[in-house]
Fold:
Amino acid sequence: MTVIDNTNDQLEQAFQSKVDAELKIEPKDWMPDGYRKTLVRQMSQHAHSEVVGMLPEGNWLTRAPSLKRKAILMAKIQDEGGHGLYLYSAAETLGVSRDEMYEQLHTGKAKYSSIFNYPTLNWADIGAIGWLVDGAAITNQIALCRCSYGPYARAMVKVCKEESFHQRQGYEIMINMANGTKEQKEMAQDAINRWWWPSLMMFGPHDKNSDHSSQSMKWKIKRTSNDELRQRFVDATVPQAKFLGLEVPDDKLAWNEEKQSYDWGEIDWDEFRNVVAGNGLCNRERLQTRRDAHEGGKWVRDAALAYAEKQKKRAAEKHAA
Amino acid sequence: MTENEMHFEYLLRLGDNCAILGQRLAEWCGKAPVLEEELALMNVGLDLIGQARLLLDHAGKVEGAGRDEDKLAFFRDTQEWRNLLLIEQPNGDFAKTMARQMFFDCFQYLQFEALLDSSDKTLSEIAAKSLKEITYHRRHSTNWVIRLGDGTEESHEKMQAAIDELWGFVPEMFDMDEVEDAMVAAGIGADVNALRPRWDEMINSILEEATLKRPEDTWSVRGSRVGKHSEHLGFLLAEMQFLPRAYPDAKW
Structure:
Protein backbone atom coordinates (compact mmCIF):
# COMPACT_ATOMS: atom_id res chain seq x y z
CA MET A 1 0.00 0.00 0.00
CA THR A 2 2.77 2.37 0.97
CA VAL A 3 4.42 1.82 -2.37
CA ILE A 4 1.30 2.85 -4.24
CA ASP A 5 0.90 5.94 -2.06
CA ASN A 6 4.46 6.91 -2.68
CA THR A 7 4.00 6.49 -6.40
CA ASN A 8 0.87 8.62 -6.28
CA ASP A 9 2.65 11.28 -4.30
CA GLN A 10 5.47 11.32 -6.78
CA LEU A 11 3.06 11.50 -9.68
CA GLU A 12 1.21 14.31 -8.03
CA GLN A 13 4.42 16.19 -7.35
CA ALA A 14 5.55 15.77 -10.94
CA PHE A 15 2.13 16.94 -12.10
CA GLN A 16 2.22 20.03 -9.89
CA SER A 17 5.71 20.99 -10.98
CA LYS A 18 4.63 20.72 -14.58
CA VAL A 19 1.69 23.00 -13.83
CA ASP A 20 3.95 25.39 -11.92
CA ALA A 21 6.34 25.50 -14.87
CA GLU A 22 3.39 26.60 -17.08
CA LEU A 23 3.54 23.40 -19.13
CA LYS A 24 0.23 22.13 -20.50
CA ILE A 25 -1.36 18.95 -19.21
CA GLU A 26 -2.49 16.74 -22.09
CA PRO A 27 -5.19 14.02 -22.12
CA LYS A 28 -2.80 11.08 -21.78
CA ASP A 29 -0.77 12.63 -18.96
CA TRP A 30 -1.30 11.49 -15.41
CA MET A 31 -3.53 13.84 -13.45
CA PRO A 32 -5.11 13.81 -9.98
CA ASP A 33 -8.71 12.62 -9.86
CA GLY A 34 -9.83 15.93 -8.45
CA TYR A 35 -8.23 17.80 -11.35
CA ARG A 36 -10.03 15.56 -13.84
CA LYS A 37 -13.34 15.93 -11.99
CA THR A 38 -13.04 19.69 -11.70
CA LEU A 39 -12.31 20.00 -15.39
CA VAL A 40 -15.16 17.71 -16.44
CA ARG A 41 -17.52 19.72 -14.26
CA GLN A 42 -16.29 23.07 -15.55
CA MET A 43 -15.95 22.14 -19.22
CA SER A 44 -19.27 20.34 -19.46
CA GLN A 45 -20.93 23.24 -17.67
CA HIS A 46 -19.33 25.55 -20.20
CA ALA A 47 -20.49 23.36 -23.12
CA HIS A 48 -24.03 23.18 -21.72
CA SER A 49 -24.04 26.97 -21.36
CA GLU A 50 -23.24 27.38 -25.04
CA VAL A 51 -26.06 25.05 -26.04
CA VAL A 52 -28.69 26.34 -23.59
CA GLY A 53 -27.54 29.85 -24.49
CA MET A 54 -28.88 29.30 -28.00
CA LEU A 55 -32.42 29.35 -26.61
CA PRO A 56 -32.84 32.95 -25.36
CA GLU A 57 -31.35 34.21 -28.62
CA GLY A 58 -33.33 31.75 -30.71
CA ASN A 59 -36.36 33.35 -29.07
CA TRP A 60 -35.76 36.43 -31.28
CA LEU A 61 -34.35 34.75 -34.37
CA THR A 62 -37.72 34.47 -36.08
CA ARG A 63 -38.50 38.09 -35.12
CA ALA A 64 -35.20 39.77 -36.01
CA PRO A 65 -36.12 43.19 -37.41
CA SER A 66 -34.12 43.05 -40.66
CA LEU A 67 -32.72 40.33 -42.90
CA LYS A 68 -29.19 41.45 -42.05
CA ARG A 69 -29.87 41.20 -38.31
CA LYS A 70 -31.43 37.79 -38.81
CA ALA A 71 -28.38 36.58 -40.73
CA ILE A 72 -25.96 37.93 -38.09
CA LEU A 73 -27.93 36.36 -35.26
CA MET A 74 -28.13 33.03 -37.08
CA ALA A 75 -24.38 33.06 -37.60
CA LYS A 76 -23.86 33.86 -33.93
CA ILE A 77 -26.12 31.07 -32.76
CA GLN A 78 -24.34 28.71 -35.13
CA ASP A 79 -21.01 29.74 -33.62
CA GLU A 80 -22.37 28.98 -30.17
CA GLY A 81 -23.44 25.51 -31.20
CA GLY A 82 -19.93 25.11 -32.59
CA HIS A 83 -18.42 26.18 -29.27
CA GLY A 84 -20.62 23.60 -27.59
CA LEU A 85 -19.25 20.97 -29.95
CA TYR A 86 -15.58 21.69 -29.30
CA LEU A 87 -16.11 21.97 -25.60
CA TYR A 88 -17.93 18.62 -25.48
CA SER A 89 -15.11 17.12 -27.55
CA ALA A 90 -12.48 18.68 -25.30
CA ALA A 91 -14.30 17.30 -22.23
CA GLU A 92 -14.47 13.87 -23.90
CA THR A 93 -10.66 13.76 -23.81
CA LEU A 94 -11.08 13.35 -20.03
CA GLY A 95 -12.98 10.12 -20.45
CA VAL A 96 -16.59 11.28 -20.22
CA SER A 97 -18.98 10.82 -23.17
CA ARG A 98 -21.26 13.44 -24.62
CA ASP A 99 -24.26 11.25 -23.77
CA GLU A 100 -23.21 11.14 -20.11
CA MET A 101 -22.85 14.91 -20.09
CA TYR A 102 -26.30 15.34 -21.66
CA GLU A 103 -27.72 12.96 -19.10
CA GLN A 104 -26.27 15.12 -16.31
CA LEU A 105 -27.69 18.25 -17.88
CA HIS A 106 -31.12 16.77 -18.43
CA THR A 107 -31.40 15.39 -14.91
CA GLY A 108 -30.28 18.70 -13.41
CA LYS A 109 -27.01 17.27 -12.04
CA ALA A 110 -24.86 19.48 -14.24
CA LYS A 111 -25.37 23.22 -14.27
CA TYR A 112 -25.14 25.75 -17.05
CA SER A 113 -24.65 29.48 -16.79
CA SER A 114 -27.58 30.93 -14.83
CA ILE A 115 -27.73 33.97 -17.08
CA PHE A 116 -29.68 31.93 -19.63
CA ASN A 117 -32.50 31.49 -17.16
CA TYR A 118 -33.48 35.11 -17.69
CA PRO A 119 -35.98 35.86 -20.48
CA THR A 120 -35.30 37.90 -23.63
CA LEU A 121 -38.18 40.35 -23.73
CA ASN A 122 -37.34 42.90 -26.39
CA TRP A 123 -34.99 43.16 -29.35
CA ALA A 124 -32.43 45.20 -27.39
CA ASP A 125 -31.96 42.10 -25.21
CA ILE A 126 -30.18 40.53 -28.16
CA GLY A 127 -27.82 43.50 -28.20
CA ALA A 128 -27.41 43.37 -24.42
CA ILE A 129 -26.62 39.65 -24.48
CA GLY A 130 -23.88 40.22 -27.03
CA TRP A 131 -22.52 43.26 -25.27
CA LEU A 132 -22.84 42.31 -21.59
CA VAL A 133 -23.21 38.54 -21.43
CA ASP A 134 -20.64 37.75 -24.11
CA GLY A 135 -18.52 40.57 -22.71
CA ALA A 136 -18.53 38.96 -19.26
CA ALA A 137 -17.91 35.55 -20.82
CA ILE A 138 -14.88 36.86 -22.71
CA THR A 139 -13.45 38.40 -19.56
CA ASN A 140 -13.60 34.92 -18.02
CA GLN A 141 -12.46 33.07 -21.09
CA ILE A 142 -9.42 35.19 -21.87
CA ALA A 143 -8.10 34.05 -18.51
CA LEU A 144 -8.96 30.46 -19.46
CA CYS A 145 -6.80 30.59 -22.61
CA ARG A 146 -3.90 30.12 -20.18
CA CYS A 147 -5.57 27.24 -18.34
CA SER A 148 -3.24 24.33 -17.55
CA TYR A 149 -5.32 21.74 -19.43
CA GLY A 150 -4.20 21.87 -23.08
CA PRO A 151 -7.42 20.93 -24.91
CA TYR A 152 -9.45 23.41 -22.84
CA ALA A 153 -6.94 26.23 -23.29
CA ARG A 154 -6.78 25.69 -27.05
CA ALA A 155 -10.58 25.53 -27.37
CA MET A 156 -10.76 28.83 -25.48
CA VAL A 157 -8.46 30.59 -27.95
CA LYS A 158 -10.82 29.84 -30.81
CA VAL A 159 -13.92 30.56 -28.73
CA CYS A 160 -12.55 33.94 -27.60
CA LYS A 161 -11.94 35.11 -31.16
CA GLU A 162 -15.54 34.43 -32.10
CA GLU A 163 -16.93 35.79 -28.85
CA SER A 164 -15.22 39.12 -29.25
CA PHE A 165 -16.83 39.39 -32.68
CA HIS A 166 -20.21 38.67 -31.05
CA GLN A 167 -19.58 41.28 -28.44
CA ARG A 168 -18.94 43.94 -31.07
CA GLN A 169 -22.09 42.92 -32.92
CA GLY A 170 -24.09 43.14 -29.71
CA TYR A 171 -22.70 46.56 -28.97
CA GLU A 172 -23.54 47.67 -32.50
CA ILE A 173 -27.17 46.70 -31.93
CA MET A 174 -27.08 48.75 -28.73
CA ILE A 175 -25.66 51.76 -30.59
CA ASN A 176 -28.53 51.61 -33.06
CA MET A 177 -31.09 51.20 -30.31
CA ALA A 178 -29.64 53.90 -28.06
CA ASN A 179 -29.54 56.36 -30.95
CA GLY A 180 -32.88 55.33 -32.38
CA THR A 181 -36.47 56.35 -31.73
CA LYS A 182 -37.83 57.04 -28.27
CA GLU A 183 -39.20 53.50 -28.08
CA GLN A 184 -35.88 52.01 -29.11
CA LYS A 185 -34.06 53.97 -26.40
CA GLU A 186 -36.58 52.69 -23.87
CA MET A 187 -35.96 49.14 -25.04
CA ALA A 188 -32.21 49.65 -24.68
CA GLN A 189 -32.53 51.03 -21.15
CA ASP A 190 -34.95 48.28 -20.20
CA ALA A 191 -32.44 45.71 -21.49
CA ILE A 192 -29.50 47.06 -19.48
CA ASN A 193 -31.74 47.33 -16.41
CA ARG A 194 -32.51 43.64 -16.60
CA TRP A 195 -29.14 42.28 -17.79
CA TRP A 196 -26.63 44.33 -15.80
CA TRP A 197 -26.79 42.53 -12.46
CA PRO A 198 -27.16 39.01 -13.85
CA SER A 199 -24.06 39.73 -15.99
CA LEU A 200 -22.08 40.61 -12.85
CA MET A 201 -23.35 37.39 -11.26
CA MET A 202 -21.75 35.45 -14.12
CA PHE A 203 -18.39 35.77 -12.37
CA GLY A 204 -19.64 33.66 -9.50
CA PRO A 205 -19.60 34.20 -5.73
CA HIS A 206 -17.14 36.47 -3.95
CA ASP A 207 -13.69 34.91 -3.68
CA LYS A 208 -14.16 34.35 0.03
CA ASN A 209 -17.33 32.31 -0.64
CA SER A 210 -16.17 30.41 -3.70
CA ASP A 211 -15.94 26.66 -2.98
CA HIS A 212 -13.72 25.65 -5.82
CA SER A 213 -11.47 28.66 -6.17
CA SER A 214 -8.24 28.04 -4.26
CA GLN A 215 -7.61 24.48 -5.48
CA SER A 216 -8.44 25.54 -9.05
CA MET A 217 -5.96 28.40 -8.78
CA LYS A 218 -3.27 26.05 -7.58
CA TRP A 219 -3.96 23.74 -10.52
CA LYS A 220 -4.04 26.75 -12.83
CA ILE A 221 -7.45 25.77 -14.16
CA LYS A 222 -8.49 29.16 -12.92
CA ARG A 223 -5.97 31.99 -13.37
CA THR A 224 -7.72 35.03 -11.98
CA SER A 225 -10.17 35.36 -9.10
CA ASN A 226 -13.91 35.94 -9.51
CA ASP A 227 -13.82 39.37 -7.89
CA GLU A 228 -10.86 40.55 -9.90
CA LEU A 229 -12.48 39.48 -13.19
CA ARG A 230 -15.74 41.11 -12.16
CA GLN A 231 -13.93 44.38 -11.44
CA ARG A 232 -12.21 44.24 -14.84
CA PHE A 233 -15.57 43.79 -16.50
CA VAL A 234 -17.17 46.71 -14.63
CA ASP A 235 -14.26 49.00 -15.44
CA ALA A 236 -14.39 48.12 -19.12
CA THR A 237 -18.16 48.24 -19.47
CA VAL A 238 -19.29 51.34 -17.57
CA PRO A 239 -17.64 53.75 -20.08
CA GLN A 240 -19.33 51.81 -22.90
CA ALA A 241 -22.71 52.32 -21.23
CA LYS A 242 -21.93 56.03 -20.86
CA PHE A 243 -21.06 56.25 -24.53
CA LEU A 244 -24.48 54.79 -25.31
CA GLY A 245 -26.13 57.32 -23.03
CA LEU A 246 -27.62 54.52 -20.95
CA GLU A 247 -27.86 54.46 -17.22
CA VAL A 248 -26.23 51.61 -15.32
CA PRO A 249 -28.83 50.44 -12.77
CA ASP A 250 -26.61 50.87 -9.71
CA ASP A 251 -26.90 54.05 -7.61
CA LYS A 252 -23.66 53.23 -5.78
CA LEU A 253 -21.62 53.20 -8.95
CA ALA A 254 -18.85 55.82 -8.77
CA TRP A 255 -15.34 56.32 -10.12
CA ASN A 256 -12.69 55.86 -7.45
CA GLU A 257 -9.80 58.11 -8.36
CA GLU A 258 -7.46 56.54 -5.84
CA LYS A 259 -7.77 52.95 -6.97
CA GLN A 260 -8.36 54.02 -10.59
CA SER A 261 -11.43 51.86 -10.95
CA TYR A 262 -15.14 51.86 -10.16
CA ASP A 263 -16.80 51.32 -6.83
CA TRP A 264 -20.19 49.78 -7.10
CA GLY A 265 -23.10 48.28 -5.17
CA GLU A 266 -23.72 44.78 -3.92
CA ILE A 267 -25.11 41.90 -5.96
CA ASP A 268 -28.39 40.45 -4.73
CA TRP A 269 -26.93 37.12 -3.66
CA ASP A 270 -30.33 35.74 -2.68
CA GLU A 271 -31.44 36.10 -6.25
CA PHE A 272 -28.18 34.55 -7.44
CA ARG A 273 -28.63 31.50 -5.21
CA ASN A 274 -32.27 31.20 -6.13
CA VAL A 275 -31.59 31.09 -9.86
CA VAL A 276 -28.62 28.74 -9.46
CA ALA A 277 -30.89 26.49 -7.41
CA GLY A 278 -33.19 26.21 -10.40
CA ASN A 279 -35.88 28.69 -9.46
CA GLY A 280 -35.41 31.49 -11.97
CA LEU A 281 -38.17 32.41 -14.41
CA CYS A 282 -36.89 30.23 -17.24
CA ASN A 283 -34.93 27.39 -15.56
CA ARG A 284 -37.64 24.78 -15.96
CA GLU A 285 -38.55 25.85 -19.46
CA ARG A 286 -34.98 25.89 -20.78
CA LEU A 287 -34.27 22.45 -19.42
CA GLN A 288 -37.54 21.09 -20.75
CA THR A 289 -36.79 22.48 -24.22
CA ARG A 290 -33.41 20.70 -24.19
CA ARG A 291 -34.97 17.46 -22.93
CA ASP A 292 -37.72 17.60 -25.53
CA ALA A 293 -35.21 18.20 -28.33
CA HIS A 294 -33.09 15.30 -27.15
CA GLU A 295 -35.94 12.87 -26.58
CA GLY A 296 -37.81 14.02 -29.66
CA GLY A 297 -34.69 13.51 -31.77
CA LYS A 298 -34.00 9.99 -30.56
CA TRP A 299 -35.68 8.34 -33.53
CA VAL A 300 -33.50 10.41 -35.87
CA ARG A 301 -30.26 9.47 -34.09
CA ASP A 302 -31.38 5.82 -33.95
CA ALA A 303 -32.06 5.90 -37.68
CA ALA A 304 -28.65 7.40 -38.43
CA LEU A 305 -26.96 4.67 -36.36
CA ALA A 306 -29.04 1.91 -37.94
CA TYR A 307 -28.21 3.20 -41.40
CA ALA A 308 -24.50 3.43 -40.63
CA GLU A 309 -24.62 -0.14 -39.32
CA LYS A 310 -26.32 -1.34 -42.51
CA GLN A 311 -23.76 0.43 -44.66
CA LYS A 312 -20.93 -1.16 -42.75
CA LYS A 313 -22.46 -4.60 -43.20
CA ARG A 314 -23.03 -3.98 -46.89
CA ALA A 315 -19.45 -2.89 -47.37
CA ALA A 316 -18.21 -5.99 -45.55
CA GLU A 317 -20.42 -8.26 -47.66
CA LYS A 318 -19.23 -6.59 -50.82
CA HIS A 319 -15.66 -6.99 -49.68
CA ALA A 320 -16.22 -10.69 -48.90
CA ALA A 321 -17.83 -11.29 -52.28
CA MET B 1 -47.53 43.67 -67.05
CA THR B 2 -44.54 45.40 -68.61
CA GLU B 3 -41.34 43.41 -69.07
CA ASN B 4 -39.79 45.32 -66.18
CA GLU B 5 -42.71 44.44 -63.91
CA MET B 6 -42.36 40.81 -64.93
CA HIS B 7 -38.64 40.93 -64.24
CA PHE B 8 -39.37 42.25 -60.76
CA GLU B 9 -42.05 39.63 -60.21
CA TYR B 10 -39.64 36.91 -61.34
CA LEU B 11 -36.95 38.00 -58.89
CA LEU B 12 -39.51 38.05 -56.08
CA ARG B 13 -40.37 34.44 -56.84
CA LEU B 14 -36.73 33.48 -56.50
CA GLY B 15 -36.01 35.62 -53.44
CA ASP B 16 -39.22 34.81 -51.57
CA ASN B 17 -38.49 31.08 -51.68
CA CYS B 18 -35.18 31.74 -49.95
CA ALA B 19 -36.56 34.18 -47.37
CA ILE B 20 -39.44 31.98 -46.27
CA LEU B 21 -37.45 28.75 -46.17
CA GLY B 22 -34.70 30.50 -44.20
CA GLN B 23 -37.35 31.67 -41.74
CA ARG B 24 -38.73 28.14 -41.41
CA LEU B 25 -35.28 26.75 -40.68
CA ALA B 26 -34.72 29.45 -38.04
CA GLU B 27 -37.71 27.95 -36.21
CA TRP B 28 -35.62 24.82 -35.60
CA CYS B 29 -33.16 26.74 -33.42
CA GLY B 30 -32.58 24.85 -30.17
CA LYS B 31 -34.81 21.96 -31.18
CA ALA B 32 -32.71 19.90 -33.60
CA PRO B 33 -32.33 16.15 -33.00
CA VAL B 34 -28.56 16.39 -32.51
CA LEU B 35 -26.10 19.24 -31.97
CA GLU B 36 -24.36 18.76 -35.32
CA GLU B 37 -27.74 19.13 -36.99
CA GLU B 38 -28.42 22.29 -35.01
CA LEU B 39 -25.39 23.74 -36.77
CA ALA B 40 -26.33 22.36 -40.18
CA LEU B 41 -29.88 23.72 -40.09
CA MET B 42 -28.66 27.17 -39.01
CA ASN B 43 -26.01 27.03 -41.70
CA VAL B 44 -28.48 26.22 -44.48
CA GLY B 45 -30.91 28.81 -43.12
CA LEU B 46 -28.17 31.40 -43.05
CA ASP B 47 -27.26 30.69 -46.68
CA LEU B 48 -30.90 31.05 -47.67
CA ILE B 49 -31.32 34.36 -45.85
CA GLY B 50 -28.15 35.54 -47.61
CA GLN B 51 -29.56 34.53 -50.99
CA ALA B 52 -32.86 36.23 -50.13
CA ARG B 53 -31.02 39.46 -49.33
CA LEU B 54 -29.20 39.50 -52.67
CA LEU B 55 -32.28 38.61 -54.68
CA LEU B 56 -34.66 40.99 -52.93
CA ASP B 57 -32.13 43.81 -53.07
CA HIS B 58 -31.81 43.22 -56.80
CA ALA B 59 -35.60 42.98 -57.17
CA GLY B 60 -36.00 46.33 -55.45
CA LYS B 61 -33.52 47.94 -57.83
CA VAL B 62 -35.22 46.45 -60.88
CA GLU B 63 -38.57 47.71 -59.61
CA GLY B 64 -37.09 51.17 -59.17
CA ALA B 65 -39.64 52.29 -56.58
CA GLY B 66 -37.15 52.71 -53.75
CA ARG B 67 -37.96 49.48 -51.93
CA ASP B 68 -34.93 47.72 -50.43
CA GLU B 69 -34.60 44.12 -49.22
CA ASP B 70 -36.21 44.90 -45.87
CA LYS B 71 -39.09 46.93 -47.30
CA LEU B 72 -39.83 43.92 -49.47
CA ALA B 73 -39.36 41.35 -46.72
CA PHE B 74 -41.19 43.12 -43.91
CA PHE B 75 -43.86 45.25 -45.55
CA ARG B 76 -45.64 42.89 -47.91
CA ASP B 77 -48.73 40.97 -46.83
CA THR B 78 -49.49 37.34 -47.75
CA GLN B 79 -51.10 38.01 -51.12
CA GLU B 80 -47.98 39.88 -52.25
CA TRP B 81 -45.59 37.01 -51.50
CA ARG B 82 -44.48 34.78 -54.36
CA ASN B 83 -42.78 31.85 -52.63
CA LEU B 84 -43.93 28.34 -53.54
CA LEU B 85 -46.61 26.74 -51.39
CA LEU B 86 -44.18 23.94 -50.57
CA ILE B 87 -41.78 26.37 -48.93
CA GLU B 88 -44.21 27.83 -46.43
CA GLN B 89 -45.48 24.47 -45.14
CA PRO B 90 -44.79 24.06 -41.42
CA ASN B 91 -41.65 22.21 -40.34
CA GLY B 92 -43.50 19.22 -38.90
CA ASP B 93 -41.05 16.57 -37.73
CA PHE B 94 -37.47 16.27 -38.92
CA ALA B 95 -38.53 13.94 -41.75
CA LYS B 96 -40.98 16.49 -43.11
CA THR B 97 -38.41 19.28 -42.89
CA MET B 98 -35.93 17.13 -44.81
CA ALA B 99 -38.49 16.08 -47.44
CA ARG B 100 -39.40 19.73 -48.07
CA GLN B 101 -35.75 20.65 -48.16
CA MET B 102 -34.75 17.88 -50.55
CA PHE B 103 -37.57 18.65 -52.98
CA PHE B 104 -36.57 22.29 -52.99
CA ASP B 105 -32.79 21.80 -52.95
CA CYS B 106 -32.94 19.58 -56.06
CA PHE B 107 -35.24 22.07 -57.75
CA GLN B 108 -33.24 25.13 -56.77
CA TYR B 109 -30.02 23.45 -57.84
CA LEU B 110 -31.34 22.89 -61.36
CA GLN B 111 -32.99 26.27 -61.55
CA PHE B 112 -29.90 28.19 -60.43
CA GLU B 113 -27.66 26.13 -62.67
CA ALA B 114 -29.80 27.27 -65.59
CA LEU B 115 -29.66 30.86 -64.31
CA LEU B 116 -25.89 30.91 -64.68
CA ASP B 117 -26.60 31.84 -68.30
CA SER B 118 -29.08 34.58 -67.45
CA SER B 119 -28.73 37.78 -69.46
CA ASP B 120 -29.40 39.57 -66.16
CA LYS B 121 -25.76 39.83 -65.05
CA THR B 122 -26.54 40.38 -61.38
CA LEU B 123 -28.85 37.38 -61.36
CA SER B 124 -26.27 35.12 -62.97
CA GLU B 125 -23.69 36.24 -60.40
CA ILE B 126 -26.10 35.53 -57.54
CA ALA B 127 -26.80 32.11 -59.09
CA ALA B 128 -23.09 31.32 -59.28
CA LYS B 129 -22.52 32.26 -55.66
CA SER B 130 -25.61 30.42 -54.47
CA LEU B 131 -24.95 27.27 -56.44
CA LYS B 132 -21.97 26.42 -54.25
CA GLU B 133 -24.20 26.67 -51.19
CA ILE B 134 -27.05 24.74 -52.79
CA THR B 135 -24.68 21.92 -53.70
CA TYR B 136 -24.04 21.43 -49.99
CA HIS B 137 -27.72 21.85 -49.06
CA ARG B 138 -28.70 19.18 -51.55
CA ARG B 139 -26.13 16.74 -50.26
CA HIS B 140 -27.23 17.38 -46.69
CA SER B 141 -30.97 16.90 -47.24
CA THR B 142 -30.49 13.98 -49.63
CA ASN B 143 -28.30 12.14 -47.15
CA TRP B 144 -30.89 12.56 -44.43
CA VAL B 145 -33.74 11.32 -46.63
CA ILE B 146 -31.66 8.24 -47.43
CA ARG B 147 -30.63 7.66 -43.81
CA LEU B 148 -34.15 8.05 -42.50
CA GLY B 149 -35.70 6.03 -45.32
CA ASP B 150 -33.23 3.18 -44.92
CA GLY B 151 -32.75 3.58 -41.14
CA THR B 152 -35.20 2.02 -38.70
CA GLU B 153 -38.77 0.93 -39.31
CA GLU B 154 -40.00 4.01 -37.45
CA SER B 155 -37.86 6.43 -39.44
CA HIS B 156 -38.83 4.72 -42.69
CA GLU B 157 -42.51 5.21 -41.91
CA LYS B 158 -42.03 8.84 -40.95
CA MET B 159 -39.96 9.57 -44.04
CA GLN B 160 -42.50 7.94 -46.35
CA ALA B 161 -45.35 9.84 -44.67
CA ALA B 162 -43.46 13.12 -45.17
CA ILE B 163 -42.83 12.43 -48.87
CA ASP B 164 -46.49 11.50 -49.36
CA GLU B 165 -47.72 14.55 -47.46
CA LEU B 166 -45.72 17.01 -49.58
CA TRP B 167 -45.95 15.31 -52.96
CA GLY B 168 -48.89 17.37 -54.13
CA PHE B 169 -46.87 20.57 -53.70
CA VAL B 170 -44.30 19.43 -56.26
CA PRO B 171 -46.04 20.19 -59.59
CA GLU B 172 -46.32 23.90 -58.78
CA MET B 173 -42.54 24.22 -58.87
CA PHE B 174 -42.49 23.40 -62.58
CA ASP B 175 -45.43 25.49 -63.74
CA MET B 176 -44.88 28.02 -66.50
CA ASP B 177 -47.04 31.11 -66.83
CA GLU B 178 -46.91 34.47 -68.58
CA VAL B 179 -44.05 35.72 -66.36
CA GLU B 180 -41.94 32.57 -66.64
CA ASP B 181 -42.48 32.44 -70.42
CA ALA B 182 -41.54 36.09 -70.88
CA MET B 183 -38.42 35.74 -68.73
CA VAL B 184 -37.28 32.66 -70.67
CA ALA B 185 -37.91 34.54 -73.93
CA ALA B 186 -35.89 37.52 -72.67
CA GLY B 187 -32.99 35.26 -71.72
CA ILE B 188 -33.36 36.24 -68.06
CA GLY B 189 -35.17 33.26 -66.58
CA ALA B 190 -34.83 29.48 -66.52
CA ASP B 191 -37.33 27.19 -68.23
CA VAL B 192 -38.45 25.28 -65.14
CA ASN B 193 -40.78 23.03 -67.07
CA ALA B 194 -37.80 21.68 -68.95
CA LEU B 195 -36.09 20.85 -65.64
CA ARG B 196 -38.73 18.38 -64.51
CA PRO B 197 -37.23 15.24 -66.14
CA ARG B 198 -33.87 15.83 -64.45
CA TRP B 199 -35.56 16.56 -61.14
CA ASP B 200 -37.53 13.33 -61.48
CA GLU B 201 -34.36 11.42 -62.19
CA MET B 202 -32.68 12.84 -59.08
CA ILE B 203 -35.66 12.18 -56.86
CA ASN B 204 -36.24 8.66 -58.22
CA SER B 205 -32.69 7.69 -57.52
CA ILE B 206 -32.78 9.16 -54.00
CA LEU B 207 -36.08 7.46 -53.20
CA GLU B 208 -34.79 4.16 -54.50
CA GLU B 209 -31.66 4.34 -52.39
CA ALA B 210 -33.79 5.35 -49.42
CA THR B 211 -36.09 2.33 -50.03
CA LEU B 212 -39.01 4.76 -50.30
CA LYS B 213 -41.95 4.64 -52.70
CA ARG B 214 -42.53 7.41 -55.18
CA PRO B 215 -46.11 8.53 -54.52
CA GLU B 216 -48.78 8.41 -57.22
CA ASP B 217 -49.60 11.77 -58.77
CA THR B 218 -53.12 11.89 -57.40
CA TRP B 219 -53.35 15.48 -56.21
CA SER B 220 -51.67 18.83 -56.59
CA VAL B 221 -52.23 22.33 -55.25
CA ARG B 222 -51.26 25.68 -56.74
CA GLY B 223 -51.72 29.38 -56.21
CA SER B 224 -48.54 31.04 -54.92
CA ARG B 225 -47.76 32.70 -58.25
CA VAL B 226 -50.89 34.79 -57.89
CA GLY B 227 -50.57 35.26 -54.14
CA LYS B 228 -53.03 32.54 -53.10
CA HIS B 229 -51.21 30.91 -50.23
CA SER B 230 -51.98 28.36 -47.57
CA GLU B 231 -53.15 29.54 -44.13
CA HIS B 232 -49.65 28.99 -42.72
CA LEU B 233 -47.97 31.94 -44.43
CA GLY B 234 -49.96 34.58 -42.54
CA PHE B 235 -48.73 33.34 -39.16
CA LEU B 236 -45.17 33.08 -40.39
CA LEU B 237 -45.29 36.69 -41.59
CA ALA B 238 -47.02 37.94 -38.45
CA GLU B 239 -44.08 36.68 -36.43
CA MET B 240 -41.37 37.66 -38.89
CA GLN B 241 -42.66 41.16 -39.64
CA PHE B 242 -43.85 42.18 -36.19
CA LEU B 243 -41.02 44.54 -35.15
CA PRO B 244 -40.61 46.65 -38.28
CA ARG B 245 -44.38 46.95 -38.56
CA ALA B 246 -44.86 47.89 -34.92
CA TYR B 247 -42.09 50.51 -35.13
CA PRO B 248 -41.99 51.60 -38.77
CA ASP B 249 -39.75 54.62 -38.06
CA ALA B 250 -37.05 52.64 -36.30
CA LYS B 251 -33.71 51.75 -37.84
CA TRP B 252 -32.31 48.55 -36.44
Remarks:
- Chain B has a mean pLDDT of 98.
- The radius of gyration of chain B is 18 Å.
